[in-house]
Inverse folding.
């Protein structure tokens, strides 16, 4: 998922997507520990998507705080 696609989502949708990604990452990393997965690069892609979601969520939250404080 690209950053501009994530920015179009609401905060609740980003949180939901973040939960899905964390669960998917856990399952894939567990499967990788037990035996090799078909595409080990998928772990990296999911980890980066999680980071993107967290970053954009933090941006939206800090932006909302700045608007509320009047800055």
């Amino acid at each position: 998922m690209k950053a501009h696609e994530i920015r179009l989502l609401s905060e609740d949708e980003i949180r939901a997507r973040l939960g899905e990604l964390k669960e998917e990452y856990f399952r894939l990393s567990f499967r990788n520990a037990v035996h090799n997965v078909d595409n080990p690069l998928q772990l990296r892609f999911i980890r980066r998507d999680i980071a993107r979601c967290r970053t954009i969520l933090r941006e939206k939250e800090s932006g909302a705080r700045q608007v509320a404080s009047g800055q």
Notes: The CA atoms of residues 58 and 64 lie 10 Å apart. The two ends are 31 Å apart (CA to CA). The domain at 3-69 is CATH 1.10.287 (Helix Hairpins).
